[in-house]
Amino acid sequence: MAQAFISLPDLIREDYLSCKICFELYKNPKLLPCLHTYCQHCLELLVKRNYLKCPECRMEVNVKDGIANLKTNFFINNLLDLFETKKIKDFGCTICCSSQPVIARCLDCNDFLCQSCTQGHHCSRQTRNHKVVNLNEFLDGLYDEEVRLRQEIYCQDHQREPLRFFCKTCNSAICRDCRLLVHIQHEVGSMPDEVRKKRPEVKKMIEGLDSNIMNICKQQKVVKESIEKLKASGDSIKEHITDYVNKITAHLTEQKEAALERLATFQKEQMEEYLSVMHELRSQMDKAINTKKFSQEVMDVGKDYEIMYLEKTMRNQIQELQTFKPQQLETKIPLLDIDLNEILSKLPPLFVVFSEDSKTHDLDISEEDLYSNKQPKNAVSSNSATNAPLVTTQNPQPNNSCFNPRPLRKLFCTNTFDIDVDEENDYEPKVTGIAAFPGEGGILVVDSENNEIKRFSFNGDLRRSIELTDDDNITVCSVVICGNTLACSASCYLYFLSLGGNFQHKLKMRGGQDDDYKYPITSFESEYVAVSEGTLCSISLYNTKGECLDRVRPCGYEGGRFLFIAINSLENFIVADFTMQQIVIFERSGQIIYILNSSNSILTKPFSLCVDDSDNILVVSTNEVIAFSADGENGEVLLNANNGVTKPRLVCIDSHGRLVLLHDNTRISIYEFHTGSE
């Protein structure tokens, strides 16, 4: 995995120099051990009991000595100096302070010069050898590299002396005066010499991350294959169990239900294990990629003292990643064991058995094994204590090891706030969409009445308003975060903005009869934005460049109008059909998995929906919020009027698993999940 060269202009841009918490330019940037950088003030807000969790990778950091004692990211600080220098709008001569226009900049003095001072600069004995450059060329970035080379960091004890030496004894950068005073007896070398020695070693460590990333990719592939095999095997067994039981008369109905329940429980438990491993692998992948990117940036454009300053931190992070060992995946695949020899004489026992093999790709399961009356290869004996028969021909007794019910999840409201209504200025919001920023970034609220997207903190403070000003006739509808892009649907257009709200590009979507057509949207990780296409009963997938990747329609489905949409971790689509008053769950291939409606569940009139990190489906239905299992077969009411919730409208889940609910038209409540028997 070759790393492309990172240029200085690519780094000197606002989005790179903006904090991922407050989305403003860094102020006193502090570097965490995981190599993520945030403003000192933003980090102080995250501290709980001398610890904080990185908003991006969730690494826990001990900050008992205070945020101020974390390493300052001088690499970012120096880039900020260069960025802010070029951002000044009203230039004035810093020598004579006259009203003459500025035409040049001295790279040695860091002064802006008018015509007279430029000529005087060339004539003075002290400054005639200084490099004076054209102002426009300076602002265009033609001298960024040279300015970067001239940047110095000065000693805190001797503020006029740059840090040009490295003390090996103290492992710190020092100036000339420090070398002659405090460090005179220490082993000291020049900064360039020490960097030359360290650079090959650091580069080798960075290159070593390639194999680490490749190993994680392989592990992800193994887990995905296991999930696909588990799902395919389970679906096939469901079909054959149902067909088999239907051929046997009503006496086997009880066996059928028990077998399906046992299989569903097993699949759910296995799926949770797989998803847990997948989550761990994704986390390690993100850490490895971020570490490599940051380290490469430092090595490509970092100055010598910056490399030495960060070398130990990078080394510790890389060594930690390289020693990572994923959880050992133990795979169990369900197999069907049916005795057909005596089917006409008496009721046969019905077994679902589970093979155990740590290598999923070595399982030798043929179609003949699955559906014959022989014991399948790798199957565990039905007499095994850990694999007891699911259904017997006698009166079955509950097996506590197999039927441990999961405790009901409880919701606790952590905060509630109202979106302000300004009656004097006839301002009343109409919220049609909500979404959560990653980490502690807050909540996005779509106000279609006033054509704005507002970002609130979780405490209810309004942080920013974004207006789509290119066309007064559009009406904003829905919003979602896809990687580092904010996507929103407005009338028949899909807009792509930066996380700070800066316009990037837009495209016209299909399916709308007019400009007032509503398009709910969602995203799948950072890969694409999915658009629900109403009466077409289809979904279009766009990457953040605006390219259409695919169009998906559930096979053979004759519906009414697709509305809200969600996507789970297996890339299954969950869509509310507003006209048919049902929820359709289907794969990207178009294969329908399940249709959820009032005839087979407690669902009444589905509206907004989302999925949590366990792929449970959360639905706003009439005047309550319902949680369904990932397959849609089991459901329970989470919130209703008994919890003080009236007129629920919109629901979403943030990156910490908290539920965000809009109810009573302008009220937002945040809930956390807990488990318990009470």
From TrEMBL:
Domain RING-type residue range list: 19-58
EC class: transferase
Enzyme Commission (EC) number: 2.3.2.27
The B box-type domain, residue ranges: 93-135, 150-191
Matches recorded under InterPro entries: 6-blade_b-propeller_TolB-like (IPR011042), Quino_amine_DH_bsu (IPR011044), TRIM45/56/19-like (IPR047153), Znf-RING_euk (IPR027370), Znf_B-box (IPR000315), Znf_RING (IPR001841), Znf_RING/FYVE/PHD (IPR013083), Znf_RING_CS (IPR017907)
GO cellular component, one term: nucleoplasm
Record's catalysed reaction(s): S-ubiquitinyl-[E2 ubiquitin-conjugating enzyme]-L-cysteine + [acceptor protein]-L-lysine = [E2 ubiquitin-conjugating enzyme]-L-cysteine + N(6)-ubiquitinyl-[acceptor protein]-L-lysine
Region of interest (Disordered), residue spans: 370-399
Biased composition (Polar residues): 372-399
One of the GO biological process terms: innate immune response
Molecular function per GO: ubiquitin protein ligase activity; zinc ion binding
Pfam families: zf-B_box, zf-RING_UBOX
Coiled-coil ranges per UniProt: 249-291
Alphabetic keyword roster: Coiled coil, Metal-binding, Phosphoprotein, Zinc, Zinc-finger
Metal-binding in keyword set: yes
Keyword Secreted: no
Protein family: Belongs to the TRIM/RBCC family.
Name recorded for this polypeptide: RING-type E3 ubiquitin transferase
